[in-house]
Amino acid sequence: MERNQLLQLLENDTQMRRPVLVIIGGYLTAPTDFAVLAAALEAPPYNYRVFITPISRARWALTRDWDFRVPVARLQATVQQARVLTGTDRVTILAHSVGGTTARIYLGDHPYRGQVYGGRRYVERLITLGTPHQSREYWTRRVVGFTNGTYPGAFYEHVRYVALVGRALQGHPAGTLRERMASRSYALVSGMEHAQDWGDGITTLLCAALRGAEYMVVPGLYHTSLHGRPWYGDPVALPWWDYALGLGGIRDQETRPSYALADS
């Protein structure tokens, strides 16, 4: 075998053995919002093969409680594509906002509006970024209620669940514009009594917790770039939370955010 052919085979083998990560965005995001983050995760020291679920802002805008079948089907197709192209058995899902609820439905073995997805067979880790797991919000309460009722907490033992949330903005009904907006959002997702809680600008710390999951609170991290920078999709913030990826040696222990099991 010629040297160039051997080098190509070695390169192909290395590509096939890289860990695989599937990103799914949240409400009103677009795949391009995560392109820079994906590029950072594909580069050293992470070296993932990254696939972004193709859900446009328009498609998210058309998604209504409680019919999330299209986003779940798009995630299912993306995971299948990742498995075919890489030869991997199981992937990590990185899910932003309500994308985390979508991913929890995808993992499940019970029918959702007549469909069974069973994605738990293909997922080793689910990392949620600012997902309102305990949301009381009117627009998602049925899908959130179904998910929590059917798959409570970190439901599948073989899947590592990490619930991550930024602690960037305290709600204040009479504060700055951003503080007032955060206060209104916090009241929607967690109730009026939490209007002055801390959170990422959309989701409160309480709302993002998932019983039995590893729980990370990351100071200074916002829900979207509209609320502040850095947000979950900014690569500059990766060193603040990359421990969630299971790459414990990358960052010095002293710089890690608070990290525990969620009890709520």
SSE map:
Layout: H1 3-17, E1 20-24, H2 35-42, E2 49-52, H3 57-62, H4 69-86, E3 91-96, H5 99-107, E4 123-129, H6 141-150, E5 160-167, E6 169-170, H7 177-190, E7 198-199, H8 205-208, E8 214-219, H9 238-241, E9 258-261
Helix pairs in contact: 4-5
Summarize the structure.
The protein contains 9 helices and 9 strands. With 264 residues, the protein is an alpha/beta fold.
Classified in CATH, the superfamily is Alpha/Beta hydrolase fold, catalytic domain
Q: What is the subunit organization of this protein? A: single chain
Low-confidence stretches: 6-11, 249-256
Sheet bearing the most strands, described?
7 strands, mixed
Task: Please bin the fraction of helical residues.
Answer: 25-40%
**Number of H/I helices:** 9
State the order of secondary-structure elements, H for helix, E for strand: HEHEHHEHEHEEHEHEHE
The second-level CATH architecture is 3-Layer(aba) Sandwich
Sheet-strand content, in percent, reads 15-25%
Mean pLDDT: 91
What is CATH's topology name? Rossmann fold
Measure the end-to-end span.
Answer: 59 Å
Mass-distribution shape: globular
Broad structural category: alpha/beta
Describe this structure in words.
It contains nine helices and nine strands. With 264 residues, the chain is an alpha/beta fold. The protein has a single domain, classed as Rossmann fold (3-Layer(aba) Sandwich), CATH 3.40.50. The strands form two sheets. It has a seven-stranded mixed β-sheet with strand order 2-1-3-4-5-8-9, sandwiched between helices. A two-stranded antiparallel ribbon has the order 6-7. The protein starts with a helix and ends with a strand. The relative contact order is 0.12.
